[in-house]
Amino acid sequence: MTRMIFSLLAGCFLFLGSALTLSASDDSRIFELRIYEASEGKLEALTARFRDHTTTFFEKHGIENIGYWVPSKNADNQFIYILAYPSLEARKASWKAFLGDPDWKKAKKASEVDGKLVQKIDSQFMTTTEYSPLLTLHQADDSRVFELRVYTSTEGNLANLDKRFSDATIPLFEKHGMENLCYWHLTSGQEGVENTLIYLLAHQSKEAAQESWKAFLGDPEWKAAAAASRVNGRLVVKGGVKRTYLKPLDFSPLE
User: Fold this and answer.
1) How many CB atoms lie within 10 A of CB 24?
2) Is residue 74 domain-shared with residue 62, that is, in the same domain?
3) pLDDT 10s per residue in the chain (255 long)?
4) Which of 125, 146, 162, 181 is the most buried (most CB within 10 A)?
5) Quick one: which of 183, 190, 198 has its CA closest to 152?
6) Is 1 contained in some domain?
7) Same domain as 194, residue 85
């Protein structure tokens, strides 16, 4: 009996050890970043449709809900979310089944009796970088503030930008209280695939984010790393950093 218990415990520890060593390189999922621009006055109705219907239908058809947000400052009535799939082929099959689902069609039609809820949709497909943390879904005790950042590198410098993030930026973000959630590249065939880095951070609050960025940018280690990385010129085009602070919605798996 003792030997059996020991064997079971050993197996559990091996399993836990394997789980703890998982990294983004073990994650072959395809992620999709979708940004909707709601029709005038329809953002609340769009949010309700996702909360009450869309996310459930996504799950029904094998689409993984990752996170749902609206920008903290939302002049453009944006609704932003991220999904995941086992592959692009799986994505195609899931969306075909989702869009053809009679119950979804009924729910969508009912939600649009007073007009369409969305006037513009942007979509990008992404894979995790080799140096990214493994994205795991969890809900914090307090509502965090998320930060979506999109970088456009100078020609031929995406790999050098990646190296700076891997070697210096990510550890320094962590040092100054920022939570690194995930880093992505675009999948092949999309505009910007050769020069785009997309990543997601989390902060305890907007004020915490501001303090973290101030400390990070003033850190001598960061200044030295940034200077060393620019020996062959700038890594990011002028105006090539776009930042959006996001508020998680109450039904978001990542909160």
Assistant:
1) 19
2) yes
3) 444 343 444 444 333 443 444 456 678 999 999 999 999 999 999 999 999 999 999 999 999 999 999 999 999 999 999 999 999 999 999 999 999 999 999 999 999 999 999 999 999 999 999 999 999 887 665 679 999 999 999 999 999 999 999 999 999 999 999 999 999 999 999 999 999 999 999 999 999 999 999 999 999 999 999 999 998 899 999 999 999 999 999 999 998
4) 146
5) 198
6) no
7) no
Could you tell me which residues come within 8 angstroms of residue 244 by beta carbon, excluding any fewer than 6 positions away?
Answer: 71, 80, 147, 148, 149
For 99, phi and psi rounded to 5 degrees?
-65, -25
Q: Which residues of 92-106 are buried (b: 16+ CB within 10 A; e: fewer)?
A: eebbeebeeeeebee
Domain span at residue 150 reads 127-248
Residues 190 and 160 reside in one and the same domain: yes
